[in-house]
UniProtKB/TrEMBL annotation:
Presence of keyword Oxidoreductase: yes
Domain Ketoreductase: 12-191
Gene3D superfamilies associated with the record: NAD(P)-binding Rossmann-like Domain
Family assignment from sequence similarity: Belongs to the short-chain dehydrogenases/reductases (SDR) family.
GO molecular function ontology, one term from the record: oxidoreductase activity, acting on the CH-OH group of donors, NAD or NADP as acceptor
Domain of life: Bacteria
Key word DNA damage present: no
InterPro entries, per the entry: KR_dom, NAD(P)-bd_dom_sf, SDR_fam
Protein name as catalogued: SDR family oxidoreductase
SUPFAM superfamilies: NAD(P)-binding Rossmann-fold domains (SSF51735)
Keywords: Oxidoreductase
Organism, scientific name: Kangsaoukella pontilimi
Length: 255
Protein backbone atom coordinates (compact mmCIF):
# COMPACT_ATOMS: atom_id res chain seq x y z
CA UNK A 1 0.00 0.00 0.00
CA UNK A 2 1.31 3.46 -0.89
CA UNK A 3 2.93 5.56 1.83
CA UNK A 4 1.90 8.81 0.11
CA UNK A 5 -0.64 11.01 1.91
CA UNK A 6 -3.12 13.21 0.02
CA UNK A 7 -4.61 15.54 2.65
CA UNK A 8 -7.48 16.69 0.42
CA UNK A 9 -8.83 13.12 0.27
CA UNK A 10 -9.57 13.12 4.00
CA UNK A 11 -13.36 13.09 4.44
CA UNK A 12 -13.88 13.04 0.65
CA UNK A 13 -16.99 11.16 -0.46
CA UNK A 14 -15.71 8.30 -2.62
CA UNK A 15 -17.74 5.73 -4.56
CA UNK A 16 -16.07 2.62 -6.02
CA UNK A 17 -17.69 0.01 -8.22
CA UNK A 18 -16.44 -3.52 -7.62
CA UNK A 19 -14.73 -2.27 -4.48
CA UNK A 20 -14.87 -5.50 -2.49
CA UNK A 21 -12.63 -7.80 -4.52
CA UNK A 22 -9.55 -7.82 -6.74
CA UNK A 23 -8.02 -4.45 -7.51
CA UNK A 24 -11.16 -2.77 -6.17
CA UNK A 25 -10.55 -4.11 -2.66
CA UNK A 26 -7.09 -2.55 -2.64
CA UNK A 27 -8.55 0.75 -3.85
CA UNK A 28 -11.12 0.71 -1.07
CA UNK A 29 -8.38 0.15 1.50
CA UNK A 30 -6.20 2.83 -0.06
CA UNK A 31 -8.90 5.49 0.17
CA UNK A 32 -9.85 4.41 3.69
CA UNK A 33 -6.24 4.89 4.79
CA UNK A 34 -6.42 8.44 3.41
CA UNK A 35 -9.36 9.09 5.75
CA UNK A 36 -11.92 9.21 2.94
CA UNK A 37 -15.57 8.28 3.36
CA UNK A 38 -15.79 5.26 1.08
CA UNK A 39 -18.90 3.58 -0.28
CA UNK A 40 -18.54 0.65 -2.62
CA UNK A 41 -20.75 -1.74 -4.52
CA UNK A 42 -20.08 -5.41 -5.10
CA UNK A 43 -22.32 -8.07 -6.60
CA UNK A 44 -21.32 -10.65 -4.00
CA UNK A 45 -21.69 -10.21 -0.25
CA UNK A 46 -18.72 -8.13 0.94
CA UNK A 47 -19.88 -7.59 4.53
CA UNK A 48 -16.93 -9.55 5.91
CA UNK A 49 -14.54 -7.46 3.84
CA UNK A 50 -16.11 -4.25 5.19
CA UNK A 51 -15.61 -5.58 8.74
CA UNK A 52 -12.00 -6.43 7.94
CA UNK A 53 -11.35 -2.94 6.56
CA UNK A 54 -12.88 -1.31 9.64
CA UNK A 55 -10.54 -3.34 11.84
CA UNK A 56 -7.44 -2.78 9.70
CA UNK A 57 -7.86 0.93 8.97
CA UNK A 58 -10.11 2.23 11.74
CA UNK A 59 -12.37 3.57 9.00
CA UNK A 60 -15.46 1.56 8.01
CA UNK A 61 -16.55 1.57 4.38
CA UNK A 62 -20.21 1.54 3.41
CA UNK A 63 -20.92 -1.69 1.54
CA UNK A 64 -23.93 -1.59 -0.77
CA UNK A 65 -24.70 -4.82 -2.60
CA UNK A 66 -25.37 -4.24 -6.28
CA UNK A 67 -24.94 -5.79 -9.70
CA UNK A 68 -23.73 -2.84 -11.80
CA UNK A 69 -25.71 -4.10 -14.80
CA UNK A 70 -28.87 -3.15 -12.86
CA UNK A 71 -28.77 0.56 -13.69
CA UNK A 72 -31.77 1.64 -11.55
CA UNK A 73 -30.23 -0.11 -8.53
CA UNK A 74 -26.80 1.38 -9.28
CA UNK A 75 -28.37 4.84 -9.30
CA UNK A 76 -30.10 4.06 -6.01
CA UNK A 77 -26.84 2.92 -4.42
CA UNK A 78 -25.07 6.09 -5.50
CA UNK A 79 -27.90 8.13 -3.98
CA UNK A 80 -27.59 6.15 -0.73
CA UNK A 81 -23.85 6.79 -0.65
CA UNK A 82 -24.43 10.51 -1.15
CA UNK A 83 -27.01 10.54 1.63
CA UNK A 84 -24.56 8.85 4.00
CA UNK A 85 -21.35 10.68 3.07
CA UNK A 86 -22.37 13.81 1.17
CA UNK A 87 -22.31 14.23 -2.61
CA UNK A 88 -19.89 11.84 -4.28
CA UNK A 89 -16.85 13.87 -5.34
CA UNK A 90 -14.66 10.91 -6.34
CA UNK A 91 -16.04 8.14 -8.54
CA UNK A 92 -13.91 5.13 -9.43
CA UNK A 93 -15.48 2.98 -12.14
CA UNK A 94 -13.52 -0.19 -11.54
CA UNK A 95 -15.99 -3.08 -11.99
CA UNK A 96 -15.27 -5.11 -15.11
CA UNK A 97 -15.35 -8.63 -16.49
CA UNK A 98 -12.77 -9.85 -19.01
CA UNK A 99 -14.36 -13.23 -19.67
CA UNK A 100 -12.71 -14.74 -22.73
CA UNK A 101 -14.82 -15.29 -25.83
CA UNK A 102 -14.49 -16.17 -29.51
CA UNK A 103 -15.91 -13.81 -32.09
CA UNK A 104 -17.72 -16.47 -34.10
CA UNK A 105 -19.37 -17.90 -30.99
CA UNK A 106 -20.73 -14.67 -29.46
CA UNK A 107 -24.49 -14.20 -29.40
CA UNK A 108 -26.43 -11.02 -28.67
CA UNK A 109 -27.08 -11.93 -25.05
CA UNK A 110 -23.37 -12.30 -24.29
CA UNK A 111 -22.56 -9.12 -26.22
CA UNK A 112 -25.14 -7.11 -24.27
CA UNK A 113 -24.03 -8.62 -20.94
CA UNK A 114 -20.37 -7.78 -21.56
CA UNK A 115 -21.09 -4.22 -22.67
CA UNK A 116 -23.47 -3.68 -19.76
CA UNK A 117 -20.68 -4.37 -17.29
CA UNK A 118 -17.69 -2.93 -19.10
CA UNK A 119 -19.10 0.27 -20.61
CA UNK A 120 -22.80 0.91 -19.95
CA UNK A 121 -22.43 0.83 -16.16
CA UNK A 122 -19.56 3.33 -16.40
CA UNK A 123 -21.66 5.83 -18.32
CA UNK A 124 -24.63 5.66 -15.99
CA UNK A 125 -22.47 5.84 -12.86
CA UNK A 126 -20.91 9.01 -14.27
CA UNK A 127 -24.34 10.39 -15.11
CA UNK A 128 -25.53 9.69 -11.57
CA UNK A 129 -22.66 11.46 -9.77
CA UNK A 130 -22.21 14.49 -12.02
CA UNK A 131 -25.12 16.62 -10.63
CA UNK A 132 -23.74 16.21 -7.11
CA UNK A 133 -20.24 17.11 -8.29
CA UNK A 134 -21.63 20.20 -10.03
CA UNK A 135 -23.34 21.26 -6.81
CA UNK A 136 -20.16 20.58 -4.81
CA UNK A 137 -18.02 22.69 -7.13
CA UNK A 138 -16.13 19.86 -8.79
CA UNK A 139 -14.97 16.30 -8.56
CA UNK A 140 -12.84 13.56 -10.06
CA UNK A 141 -13.96 10.55 -12.08
CA UNK A 142 -11.52 7.72 -12.75
CA UNK A 143 -12.63 5.19 -15.36
CA UNK A 144 -10.68 1.94 -15.48
CA UNK A 145 -9.69 0.87 -18.96
CA UNK A 146 -6.95 -1.61 -19.92
CA UNK A 147 -3.91 -1.85 -22.16
CA UNK A 148 -5.50 -4.92 -23.78
CA UNK A 149 -7.01 -2.88 -26.62
CA UNK A 150 -3.73 -1.00 -27.17
CA UNK A 151 -1.94 -4.33 -27.58
CA UNK A 152 -4.53 -5.60 -30.05
CA UNK A 153 -5.04 -8.70 -27.96
CA UNK A 154 -7.30 -11.43 -29.29
CA UNK A 155 -9.58 -13.58 -27.17
CA UNK A 156 -11.97 -10.96 -25.81
CA UNK A 157 -12.96 -8.49 -28.57
CA UNK A 158 -16.07 -7.13 -26.81
CA UNK A 159 -13.99 -6.37 -23.71
CA UNK A 160 -11.29 -4.59 -25.71
CA UNK A 161 -13.96 -2.64 -27.60
CA UNK A 162 -15.38 -1.51 -24.27
CA UNK A 163 -11.93 -0.44 -23.08
CA UNK A 164 -11.45 1.68 -26.17
CA UNK A 165 -14.96 3.08 -25.75
CA UNK A 166 -14.15 4.06 -22.17
CA UNK A 167 -11.36 6.29 -23.45
CA UNK A 168 -13.67 7.98 -25.93
CA UNK A 169 -16.36 8.51 -23.29
CA UNK A 170 -13.78 9.82 -20.83
CA UNK A 171 -12.55 12.47 -23.26
CA UNK A 172 -16.05 13.61 -24.16
CA UNK A 173 -17.17 13.88 -20.53
CA UNK A 174 -13.97 15.74 -19.63
CA UNK A 175 -14.75 18.30 -22.35
CA UNK A 176 -18.42 18.63 -21.42
CA UNK A 177 -18.00 19.00 -17.67
CA UNK A 178 -14.61 20.68 -17.40
CA UNK A 179 -16.31 24.07 -16.91
CA UNK A 180 -17.87 22.58 -13.76
CA UNK A 181 -14.38 21.65 -12.49
CA UNK A 182 -15.17 17.98 -12.93
CA UNK A 183 -12.12 16.05 -14.07
CA UNK A 184 -12.54 12.77 -15.95
CA UNK A 185 -9.56 10.51 -16.58
CA UNK A 186 -9.02 6.91 -17.58
CA UNK A 187 -6.52 4.56 -16.00
CA UNK A 188 -5.24 1.66 -18.08
CA UNK A 189 -3.48 -1.00 -16.02
CA UNK A 190 -1.35 -3.70 -17.51
CA UNK A 191 -1.69 -7.31 -16.45
CA UNK A 192 -2.29 -7.09 -12.71
CA UNK A 193 -1.90 -10.47 -11.05
CA UNK A 194 -4.98 -10.63 -8.88
CA UNK A 195 -6.12 -13.95 -7.42
CA UNK A 196 -8.63 -14.26 -10.28
CA UNK A 197 -5.99 -13.71 -12.94
CA UNK A 198 -3.65 -16.22 -11.33
CA UNK A 199 -6.41 -18.79 -11.07
CA UNK A 200 -8.03 -18.39 -14.48
CA UNK A 201 -5.64 -16.96 -17.06
CA UNK A 202 -2.02 -16.89 -15.89
CA UNK A 203 0.22 -19.65 -17.24
CA UNK A 204 3.99 -19.91 -16.97
CA UNK A 205 4.26 -19.42 -20.72
CA UNK A 206 1.90 -16.45 -20.76
CA UNK A 207 3.60 -14.74 -17.83
CA UNK A 208 7.02 -15.21 -19.41
CA UNK A 209 5.86 -13.78 -22.74
CA UNK A 210 4.33 -10.78 -21.01
CA UNK A 211 7.48 -10.21 -18.96
CA UNK A 212 9.47 -10.07 -22.20
CA UNK A 213 7.37 -7.05 -23.25
CA UNK A 214 7.79 -5.20 -19.96
CA UNK A 215 10.47 -2.54 -19.48
CA UNK A 216 10.33 -3.06 -15.72
CA UNK A 217 10.92 -6.72 -15.05
CA UNK A 218 8.41 -7.18 -12.28
CA UNK A 219 4.82 -8.31 -12.66
CA UNK A 220 2.17 -5.88 -11.45
CA UNK A 221 0.38 -6.40 -8.14
CA UNK A 222 -2.92 -4.75 -7.14
CA UNK A 223 -0.95 -2.46 -4.80
CA UNK A 224 0.74 -0.92 -7.83
CA UNK A 225 -2.54 0.60 -9.00
CA UNK A 226 -3.56 2.27 -5.73
CA UNK A 227 -1.12 5.19 -5.81
CA UNK A 228 -1.98 6.26 -9.37
CA UNK A 229 -5.72 6.21 -8.55
CA UNK A 230 -5.21 8.30 -5.40
CA UNK A 231 -3.15 10.75 -7.47
CA UNK A 232 -5.93 11.12 -10.07
CA UNK A 233 -8.53 11.53 -7.31
CA UNK A 234 -6.54 14.20 -5.47
CA UNK A 235 -6.22 17.90 -6.23
CA UNK A 236 -2.54 17.16 -6.83
CA UNK A 237 -3.61 16.25 -10.38
CA UNK A 238 -5.95 19.24 -10.69
CA UNK A 239 -4.67 20.15 -14.18
CA UNK A 240 -5.19 16.64 -15.60
CA UNK A 241 -8.40 15.71 -17.39
CA UNK A 242 -9.38 13.78 -20.48
CA UNK A 243 -6.23 11.70 -20.17
CA UNK A 244 -5.48 7.97 -20.18
CA UNK A 245 -2.81 7.09 -17.63
CA UNK A 246 -1.08 3.79 -18.39
CA UNK A 247 0.33 1.78 -15.48
CA UNK A 248 1.77 -1.39 -16.99
CA UNK A 249 5.49 -1.64 -16.26
CA UNK A 250 6.31 -0.33 -19.73
CA UNK A 251 4.50 -2.74 -22.06
CA UNK A 252 2.94 -0.12 -24.31
CA UNK A 253 4.25 3.32 -25.23
CA UNK A 254 1.81 6.23 -25.47
CA UNK A 255 2.18 9.71 -26.89
Amino acid sequence: MTDAIFPDLKDASVFITGGGAGIGAYLTEGFLRQGAKVAFVQRSDASAFADEMAEKTGNRPLFLQCDVTDVPLLRQRIAEAAEAHGPVTVLVNNAANDKRHKTLEVDEDFYDWSQSINLKSYFFACQAVIPGMQAAGGGSIINFSSISYMMGNAGYPIYTASNSGINGMTRSLAREFGPDRIRVNALAPGWVLTDKQLEMWATDEGLAAHMDRMCLKEHLKPDDIVGPVLFLASHVSHAMTGQAMVVDGGVVVTG
